[in-house]
Amino acid sequence: MKIATIGTGFIVDTFLAAVQEREGVTCEAVYSRRKETAQPLADKYQVGKIYTDVADVYEDEAIDVIYVASPNSLHYQYMLDAIKHGKHVICEKPFTSNEKEAAQIIELAKENQVMLFEAITTIHLPNYQWMKNNLEQLGQIKFVQCNYSQFSSRYNKLLSGETPNVFNLKFSGGALADINIYNLHFVLNMFGKPDSVNYTANKHENGIDTSGVVVMKYPEFIAECVGSKDADGLNFVVIQGEKGYLHVVGGANGCREVVLHINGQEKSVNMQLNDNLLYYELGEFQAIYESKDYQQCYELLEHTRSVMNVFETARMSADIIYEADHK
């Protein structure tokens, strides 16, 4: 699987580190509008080609898959162009700005018979899969709480009058998109779509959400997802059932340790030996790609679309409107 990257942020660095650890996966090229921003990554990971014109990435016949890690609002166009050129795509979360864009991209991928993946670490982690397989031990689920709070250095820039991409409606930013999306993936992949969704947010004067809580109602339980970029907090997930509860230490993003509490007894589980969380998702994508398992690819895309539906419903309930919503 020969990959090219779009973007030069820290997540691309982490992704390329995962590529180095996966046999049968290589990075052929990195793209950035300015060569000087791509050069450090190319040097660090011995990537042979740097492109400053994205059209060259699409035309490069040596590239099978394009990894998109641009600002959120640009995901749609990069995926659209890549798919039209017959390239498979791995796109960072959040997949798109809204469900309409997601539906269009998914349909285009199917029409062009290319594979398309959302790079969301959580649902591909071994500890997460263990939880899904052992959830029945908790009995009837009654309550789910998720908190992923991480103070952003860019928040101070926002307060000083700047508008970083992550706090910009034009770039489809905000706490829900950047951080709480992990919680949404955690809950929806485990329990399916809820009956109702509501988002109560702390908003900056420019209209972006800096923190907030999504409440999702299911027939038998309530799920609460907190995400904050304006304050640190205790990151965790707790799934409470009539027979016991699961505690995810450190939260939904990493699922780095799971503690099962049943009848006053604890069982600690950690099946993740690699600290690079992207290692696991890349392995899943590689296996699907190499086996040409389009059915599994499309099942993952249905989950992605469900998340985008809930994500957009939550945003709208808090009156958070992106520029992409007007297109």
Radius of gyration: 20 Å
Distance between the termini: 34 Å
CATH superfamily (homologous) name of the largest domain: Dihydrodipicolinate Reductase, domain 2
**Helix/strand structural class:** alpha/beta
CATH architecture of the largest domain: 2-Layer Sandwich
Number of helices: 10
Describe the biggest sheet?
8 strands, mixed
- In the CATH hierarchy, the third-tier topology of the largest domain is known as Dihydrodipicolinate Reductase, domain 2
- Average pLDDT confidence is 97
Helix content: 25-40%
Q: Catalogue the unreliable spans.
A: none
Number of domains: 2
The global form is globular
What is the chain-wise order of helices and strands? EHEHEHEHEHEHEHHEEEEEEEHH
How large is the share of residues in beta strands?
Answer: 25-35%
Protein name: Gfo/Idh/MocA family oxidoreductase
Domain Gfo/Idh/MocA-like oxidoreductase N-terminal: 2-117
GO molecular function, one term: nucleotide binding
Pfam families: GFO_IDH_MocA, GFO_IDH_MocA_C3
